[in-house]
Amino acid sequence: MLGIELNRKSELQLWRQIYQALKELMLSGQLKAGEALPSTRKLAKELDVSRNTVCEAYDLLLAEGFVISRQGAPTRVASGLCIEPVEPVLLPKTKSKLIPPVSVSFRTGRPDLRQFPRFLWQQLLHKASNELPLEAFGYTGPQGLPELREEIAAWLFRSRGLKITSDHIFITAGATHGLHLIADILRGDGQKILMEDPCHTGMLRTLKNKGCTIVPIPVDAEGIQTNYLSKCGNTGAIYVTPSHQFPLGGILPASRRASLIRFARENNLYIIEDDYDSEFRYSGESIAPLYALDPQRVFYVGTFSKAVFPALRIGYVILPYKFQDRWRDLRTHTDVQNPPFEQAALAEFLRTRKFDRHIQKMRKIYGQRRQVLLESLEGAFGSEWIAYGDSAGLHVAIDFPGKRFDEGFKNYCLQNGLYITPVESYCIEKGRHQSKLLIGYGHLEPAVIIKGVELLSDIITGLNI
Amino acid sequence: MLGIELNRKSELQLWRQIYQALKELMLSGQLKAGEALPSTRKLAKELDVSRNTVCEAYDLLLAEGFVISRQGAPTRVASGLCIEPVEPVLLPKTKSKLIPPVSVSFRTGRPDLRQFPRFLWQQLLHKASNELPLEAFGYTGPQGLPELREEIAAWLFRSRGLKITSDHIFITAGATHGLHLIADILRGDGQKILMEDPCHTGMLRTLKNKGCTIVPIPVDAEGIQTNYLSKCGNTGAIYVTPSHQFPLGGILPASRRASLIRFARENNLYIIEDDYDSEFRYSGESIAPLYALDPQRVFYVGTFSKAVFPALRIGYVILPYKFQDRWRDLRTHTDVQNPPFEQAALAEFLRTRKFDRHIQKMRKIYGQRRQVLLESLEGAFGSEWIAYGDSAGLHVAIDFPGKRFDEGFKNYCLQNGLYITPVESYCIEKGRHQSKLLIGYGHLEPAVIIKGVELLSDIITGLNI
Question: Do A333 and B209 touch (CB under 8 A)?
């Protein structure tokens, strides 16, 4: 009598329940080394199951070495099985936070998903999964689908004048993924990375997780202040967003671009150029990449997260030729490759120029929303504010001279239903941008933008900061 | 006269050609700081284009800071622009290798893609992309689609008796990706990882790329030899494949499992359990994971690359509770999340039990092929060989006592149209498995398996090794 209880309603087959019960008895030492198990016939009768059911349990116990069986002799418990049982760890219940629901979220980096041609995308995805050759379901290599790389090269040529072949392009799972692999390529002990300050906190975290030491370089309305670059020993790279600085939005002027390239050459360091959303320039064409000035010194990081949709997880990196083999090795041994379906669908989206039309459409929509935002701000705050980086993108930084915004302000806004981030939250060295707020508007309908500015105005007036 | 030449057949718009030509003249110093550009009217006439075309070029040059413009004054070149031009790097042509085409590839880890229910998968993918809520196109968090995690938990329960909730499951982009994140979680300076020897060279490379020091532990026909485990200072983890050791195929006996857990507890180290293909066990049910013995000390790594198809890029990790927050942080800042479509399609594949049916079907097909292989070997080599690990998986290790296989043998086989790997290639410490070859047969039709064994027999006889 082993005291095994069976649950005949469980999804777990009866033989497996018997197997598990016996295993637990052995692991806990209730069934001891050398002890004989009941015969399959006897246990089957006792549990009111077929003998086959018990045999199946005994077979797996035998295959896994829990029991030993010899012709003619009873099945016995193997030795050395007993281990202290562990208490199951129960996951703590998520604490219910006492934050009221957000009524307006000025979060940054959120494209408007409702405008995405979802039906068209489904068709493209279906077509792609239909037409992909069988080999595309196997391992197809770390560089990415050739058709997609061809189309990205063509897009970069027609939108930015970049002369590049598909051989130079390496598909990634987005910009963060690109930066993470570049950091691994460039990694050395105590690697220093120069970084714009303020900067994207996610990208900062990615580099810090890699063990990089971050050296902040100040940013003004035009982007990174190259006159602050000084000789840094053992520096590996400099991370910049020259087309549209995140978060202040500056377009890096040509003279600073030239300084940056000269500095990189003199100090033998690499430039990581993150071109995260320059598709959405309102007043003219996309800015030309820094990459074009020195393809052997610049890693160009692009993504389709903003231009298509975030969950797509497709971006690309153009990297100096000497690092291509290292990249292939690293990618193969971190996450192998991208899945093929989205790549094929995106290639078709680009090839048919429906991507270009989507960009044109979104540029117009985002431009109109930006206009609504700026007008609302004027209505609420008169002329006591200055917009930074309002020529491109899905967000804008607003400077309210004389005011101070900090984490306390952010939390107070949250309590009042408004999600908004002070630029200070993105600063490595604190104190230089306390009067600025970041307003993400791309994903918001005009009415919501207007409501958000009213909320903000009420809060600022009420707090009298 | 600036010598600008336009190509009216180019995909690059005329204004961008003008912009690029002017930019190159400034960067190279042919147009110098302070120099006045021709008026838009004059240049338009000279180039035979509309004035608007020239204006667009000038506008972008102005936005990017290449030129300075003041009311009433001519547009002038900004200062500090000149940088040394770089020679374009031409990618070397891929060298044509003088290797004849492979007629039989005994490569390992290759499922038979022709047997995959492709049409069903397309339907599932289409349904998923149709039904996913709009939010699924945005950022949805690093843990993975809840529906998929529910279905994986249910599958692990019905197939392996594992009692687990979806909260414990973290979706990855496959087993390699899981191991790479675990290594980052456990990483310390000079981290030592104990590893089975022989082992999967890809996984070994993943850990070496992380800077881990590898301590090899010998493997025999039953798996890792736990009696070789000794106290290792500053050891972080031990990587094992207990359900089906790669490459020798042993099922780790219960007593060694208990030793492993005791050793891990005594030395305060973690176990990484890679359950890479135990779905395909021929003679009975899937082996129970080591994880069940101590969920707070074991990282369980699973993948659908073999059971569904490699390019799917979906796997999962079940990790000790205390590392869940660290995992979320690391995943968010390396590659953010998986795309949603494949996740939703796989969830449906599991929910409808069509996955289970596919596994059953493939188990039968692979079992038949294994039989063909073993019979062919008997026909060709009589009884002068021993099969290792032939109870599961897509490959088998064959020991030819007295023979020696090395890289030279592998290359010789390649020259003769046969891809086959000596186990020695997977050894960290060389010399212990020289008489064994690895034969991957899962992806091969019976006729090809027979042909491959004939080829192998001819080569071995011819070489007289």
Answer: yes
Residue with tokens 């090809």: B448
> Out of B59, B81, B338, whose CB is closest to A255?
B81
Instruction: Flag if B83 and A130 touch (Cβ within 8 Å).
Output: no
Interface residue A32 vs chain B (CB under 8 A): no
Cα separation, B179 vs B239, whole angstroms: 9
Cβ count within 10 A of residue A410: 18
B146-178 pLDDT, tens digit each: 999 999 999 999 888 898 999 999 999 999 999
Buried b (16+ CB within 10 A) or exposed e, B172-206: bbbbbbbbbbbbbbbeeeebbbbbbbbbbbebbeb
Predicted confidence (pLDDT) per residue in B224-251, tens digit: 999 999 766 667 899 999 999 999 999 9
Determine if the pTM surpasses 0.90: yes
- The DSSP annotation for A274-330 comes to E--STT-BSSSSPPPPGGGG-TTTEEEEEESTTTT-GGG--EEEE--GGGHHHHHHH
Domains in chain B with CATH codes = 14-77 (1.10.10.10), 104-111+363-463 (3.90.1150.10), 117-352 (3.40.640.10)
d(C-alpha B307, C-alpha B287), whole Å: 16
Give all strands of the β-sheet with A169-172 in edge-to-edge order.
A169-172, A315-318, A298-303, A270-274, A235-240, A192-197, A213-220, A223-224
Chain A 44-83, residues with CB within 8 Å of chain B CB atoms: 56, 59-60, 63-66, 78-83
Beta carbons of B287 and B281 less than 8 angstroms apart: yes
- CB within 8 Å of chain B, chain A residues 381-440: 391
Banded pLDDT at A95 (limits 50, 70, 90): low
Structure tokens at B76: 């002038």
pLDDT in tens, B58-117: 999 998 899 998 888 889 999 988 888 777 666 666 655 667 789 999 999 999 999 999
- Hey, is the C-beta of B278 within 8 angstroms of any chain A C-beta? no
How far is residue A215's CA from residue A263's CA, in Å, rounded to a whole number? 15
Q: For residue range A221-274, what is the model confidence (pLDDT) as tens digits?
A: 999 999 999 766 667 899 999 999 999 999 999 999 999 999 999 988 999 999
* Tokens of residue B273, six digits: 């359990």
d(CA A168, CA A123): 29
pLDDT over 60 at A194, yes or no:
yes
Tell me if A251 and B64 make a contact (CB, 8 A cut-off). Answer: yes
Least confident of A53-62, A80-89, B48-57, B89-98: B89-98
Preferred mutation among A176, A281, A285 to probe B, highest tally of B CBs within 10 A: A285
> Has residue B21 got a pLDDT over 70?
yes
Give the residue from B6, B95, B130, B285 with the most A CB atoms within 10 Å of its CB, the best one to mutate.
B285
Give phi and psi for B360, each to the nearest 5: -60, -45
